[in-house]
């Protein structure tokens, strides 16, 4: 089943009250047996985001040599994309073409999107810390 390192990781998530689900080979192994060496988990980033970030930061400090990736920005990017998706799902949005296109091969139109109350979504995301300011000289993903 789980090795001590994996158990400690899950205990760390539990200590921080992060919501997660064990999936993949370990979940299958619980019911049908078999062998697996990795631990796959699905983390609920919509609930208790701060708990997840705290758990991952603590883990990274404790096992820096085993943590090759910076754990927090990918989570922040997922949360930012989730916030954008949430805003884009609102009823009554108005899309206004700015008259400009980006510099990619497809020349995507640059638009401003307004909520029903007139608030520009881009400015809201900037204020909330979910987006960076756009610059024509720098490639910049909208969220992240």
Structure summarized in a few sentences:
The chain is of the alpha+beta class and 144 residues long.
Give a description of the structure.
- The protein is built from 5 helices and 4 strands, in the order H-E-H-E-H-H-E-E-H.
- By secondary structure, the protein is α+β, with helices and mostly antiparallel strands.
- The protein folds into 2 domains: 4-68, no CATH class; 72-144, no CATH class.
- The protein has a two-stranded antiparallel ribbon with strand order 1-2. Strands 3-4 form a two-stranded antiparallel sheet.
- A hairpin with a 7-residue loop joins strand 3 (94-101) and strand 4 (109-114).
- Helix 1 (4-15) runs antiparallel to helix 3 (49-62).
Secondary structure layout plus pairing:
Elements: H1 4-15, E1 20-23, H2 24-32, E2 40-43, H3 49-62, H4 72-88, E3 94-101, E4 109-114, H5 121-128
Antiparallel strand pairs: 1-2, 3-4
Helix pairs in contact: 1-3
Poorly predicted parts? none
Query: Strand count, sense and closure of the main sheet?
Result: 2 strands, antiparallel
Provide mean pLDDT, rounded: 77
Using only C-alpha atoms, the radius of gyration works out to: 20 Å
Search tags:
144 residues, alpha+beta, two-stranded antiparallel ribbon
């Amino acid at each position: 089943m789980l090795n001590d390192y994996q158990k400690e990781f899950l205990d760390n998530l539990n200590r921080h009250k992060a919501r997660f689900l064990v999936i993949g080979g370990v979940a299958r192994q619980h019911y049908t047996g078999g062998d697996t060496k990795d631990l796959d988990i699905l983390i609920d980033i919509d609930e208790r985001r701060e708990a997840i970030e705290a758990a991952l930061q603590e883990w990274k400090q404790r096992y820096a040599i085993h943590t090759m990736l910076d754990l927090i920005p990918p989570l922040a990017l997922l949360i930012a994309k989730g916030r954008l998706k949430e805003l884009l799902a609102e009823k009554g949005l108005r899309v206004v073409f700015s008259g400009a296109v980006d510099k990619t091969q497809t020349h995507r139109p640059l638009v401003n999107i307004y909520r029903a109350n007139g608030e520009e979504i881009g400015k809201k995301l900037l204020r909330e810390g979910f987006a960076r300011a756009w610059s024509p000289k720098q490639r910049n993903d909208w969220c992240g």
